[in-house]
């Protein structure tokens, strides 16, 4: 009986005797779909972290979907809410923090040049802070944002809606006056929300090349801080009135901050 010899495989492994690959079998050293070898089993699936499906970041680099904040907001907002609640409780109950606050305030009132402290106090007034926010809203509308200016307007409207009832409920007497309803500071809260919302809007839309990304939040913080310092030094508010509004501002701005993070900023001047 004549024996039939099987042809041998060549060195390159392409001979006719090469056994076919089983469908569905994974090969650890295959070159994949883009190579010349055998396809991986998972080549037909989308990758776990597809770079093409990611939303590009502000500078055009691959990002994530949805955007991931730089740090958990709760780590910032939680202590602010707790501090605001503590101050409000002390003011309502006339606690020891209030007596300490009055002693500190008496040493700070009428310090510094009166025209300067008056100017700083006016930064939190509606005639000054509100036009700044209106200009930022108009610019955001012009750059194509539609919902963010509405959210900013609602955030600004939340200031009197929250501050006025607290003033009436606590009925704290102001410094250097017999009048009441001074807690918390409405001027400080107005400055924090107006300037903070303006900064968030400008960060969420394309900006001129000269307007750097760090400039708007720094300006908002400085203007809000200057307003509070001027109010205390001029004798318009107790320090705790201002501190409480400094805590309240970021809490009110948090929904707008989240909405701006959800948008797709394209900054021209990064």
Automatic annotation (TrEMBL):
Segments crossing the lipid bilayer: 71-92, 123-141, 148-166, 186-206, 213-236, 242-260
Organism listed in the record: Streptomyces stephensoniae
Keywords: Membrane, Transmembrane, Transmembrane helix
InterPro entries: PAP2/HPO (IPR000326), PAP2/HPO_sf (IPR036938)
Gene3D superfamilies per the UniProt record, alphabetical: Phosphatidic acid phosphatase type 2/haloperoxidase (1.20.144.10)
Top-level taxon in the UniProt lineage: Bacteria
Keyword Flavoprotein: no
Name under which the protein is recorded: Phosphatase PAP2 family protein
SUPFAM superfamilies in the cross-refs: Acid phosphatase/Vanadium-dependent haloperoxidase
Segments of this protein annotated with the region Disordered: 1-67
């Amino acid at each position: 009986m004549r024996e039939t010899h099987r042809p041998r495989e060549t060195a390159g492994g392409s001979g006719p005797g090469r056994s076919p690959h089983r469908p569905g079998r994974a090969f650890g050293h295959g070159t994949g779909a883009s190579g010349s070898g055998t396809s991986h089993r998972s080549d037909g699936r989308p990758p776990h972290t597809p770079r093409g499906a990611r939303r590009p970041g502000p500078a055009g680099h691959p990002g994530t979907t949805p955007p991931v904040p730089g740090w958990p907001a709760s780590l910032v907002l939680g202590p602010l809410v707790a501090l605001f609640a503590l101050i409000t409780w002390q003011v309502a109950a006339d606690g020891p923090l209030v007596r300490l606050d009055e002693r500190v305030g008496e040493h700070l009132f009428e310090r510094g040049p009166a025209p300067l402290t008056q100017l700083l106090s006016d930064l939190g007034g509606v005639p000054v802070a509100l036009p700044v926010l209106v200009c930022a809203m108009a610019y955001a509308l012009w750059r194509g944002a539609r919902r963010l200016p509405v959210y900013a307007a609602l955030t600004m409207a939340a200031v009197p809606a929250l501050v006025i009832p607290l003033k009436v409920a606590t009925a704290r007497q102001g410094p250097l006056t017999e009048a009441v309803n001074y807690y918390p500071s409405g001027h400080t809260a107005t400055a924090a929300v107006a300037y903070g919302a303006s900064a968030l809007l400008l960060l969420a839309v394309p900006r001129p090349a000269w307007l750097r990304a760090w400039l708007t939040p720094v300006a908002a913080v400085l203007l809000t801080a200057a307003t509070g310092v001027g109010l205390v030094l001029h004798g318009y508010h107790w320090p705790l009135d201002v501190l409480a509004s400094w805590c309240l501002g970021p809490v009110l701005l948090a929904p707008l901050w989240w909405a701006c993070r959800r948008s797709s900023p394209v900054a021209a001047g990064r």
